[in-house]
Amino acid sequence: MPLDLSRRSLFTGAAGLTVSGLAAAGLSSCSQAATGTTEAAFPPGAIDPYLLGPAEGVALLSRNENPYGPSQSALDMIEYAATKGAYYANQEAAVMLMEMIAERNGVSPEQVVLTTGSGEVLSAIAVLYGPRGPIVAPRLFWDTTALYAANLGMAEIQRVPLTDAMEIDLAGIEAAVTPDTGLVQLCNPNNPTGLVSDPATFQAAVRRMAATTTVLVDEAYIELSDDPEANSCVPLINEGHDVIVTRTFSKIYGMAGIRLGYAIASAETAAAIRPVVMSWSPCTSYAAGIGCYEDQAFIDFSKAKVTEARDMVFATLDTLGLEHLPSQTNFVYFKSGLEANAVQAAMAERLISVRGQYMDYNEWTRVSMGKIEDVQRFCHALPEVIGA
Ligand SMILES: Cc1ncc(COP(=O)(O)O)c(C=O)c1O
Question: Is the minimum distance from the CB of 220 to ligand 1 under 6 angstroms?
Fold first, then answer.
């Protein structure tokens, strides 16, 4: 298999943490070397409880995570993989996961590119395609990785306004595509709107645009949509269209901090993307992915929790008469009538974290679906925050 997973380098980023852990435990690195163990280097009390995950009492509803993850199937594999953490991940682990992803999606393993979160492969795609011409995209989309290439002077983003219903204006995007276009980037479902485009219309537009340029479809939230199979653009790749789809383990799989994502493309496109990827994933990520990729019970459980939380939020917004978009994701975009940053600050006073303002959408707030009890707190706080 023509894969190059052999690049290696040394990272020392965690050294400071280790030293403070050792200091807290009254151990020197010499005694660690002498005993050959770091046991007691991190007594639980020495770890700042806010170092990882939300601080106690904080309802974290701003980052579109799934707090019910990682699944037990992933955790078991992470625990095992951590014991092998002395070694760079074997290519066999990556290949096994690529095979699993390929089988589920009806593609071949060569068509799968694994990365450290989908953000990494999206960035790689942006630096690969950005220099070829403008990245045409909706005005509002998850633009972090296109901006990464733009910040490097390697891409220009050409934003096409949303429709009045805040949907992606597919006709407008199609009209903006020319032979000079470097890439069309679409996010379906879109972030922060949470909207899914009508599958037939979307796929027909993607097919037409892919005849002129490469079309990237970011499907980070596709598993949360009502009909993931119908909504996905993966079948278009096998039809031979110039389409790249990216997915992530950060959302429905609840592994945002574990870092694992992937792209599916033609074998040729995948081979072109692979050398531009900037790092390789930890053995714990591959192992976690292998553990949970087919864990349908966890996927169903997570989706049910998101739906339950979303219905609560919709009901609250309806009661308050606030306009909101019919999200098919783990976040809801609603119009509070107040400045989004003021809503964010008022929620923060109540230890509830929601997103601040996007661009000039100053009256729109995005709230993520977290733990049910946290979403309940948001729903109770909202009337007071908006002065209802
Ligand atoms: C639409 C979309 N795509 C991609 C990502 C990147 O996620 P990750 O790098 O964790 O896979 C995000 C993160 O929130 C997102 O919202």
Answer: yes
Per-residue pLDDT band for 31 (boundaries 50, 70, 90) equals very low
Q: Which of 292, 319, 353 corresponds to the end of one domain?
A: 292
Residues 206, 171 share a domain: yes
* Maximal C-alpha separation, the chain: 68
CATH number (domain holding residue 359): 3.90.1150.10
Q: Which residue has the higher pLDDT, 280 or 91?
A: 91
**Average of pLDDT values for 240-261?**
98
Q: Which domain holds residue 362?
A: 297-386
Task: Encode burial over 326-349: b for 16+ CB neighbours within 10 A, e otherwise.
Answer: ebbbbbbbbbbeeebebbbebbee
Q: Is residue 91 part of a domain?
A: yes
Closest ligand 1 atom to 141 CA = 1
Co-location of 245 and 133 in the same domain: yes
CATH code: domain of residue 105: 3.40.640.10
DSSP annotation of 110: G
Ligand 1 centroid – CA 381 distance (Å): 28
Please state which of the ranges 30-44, 191-205, 348-362 shows the lowest mean pLDDT. Answer: 30-44
145 in ligand 1 pocket by Cβ < 6 Å? no
The answer to the question of residue 265 being in a domain is yes
pTM: 0.89
**Given pLDDT bands bounded at 50, 70 and 90, which one contains residue 47?**
low
Which residue in this structure is represented by tokens 């040729």? 268
Taking the CA atoms of 130, 134, 136 and 138 in sequence, report the sign of the dihedral they define: positive
Closest CA to 78 of 251, 283, 256, 296: 283
Q: Is there an atom of ligand 1 within 6 Å of 262 CB?
A: no
Q: What per-residue confidence (pLDDT) applies to 42?
A: 53
Q: How many domains does the chain have?
A: 2
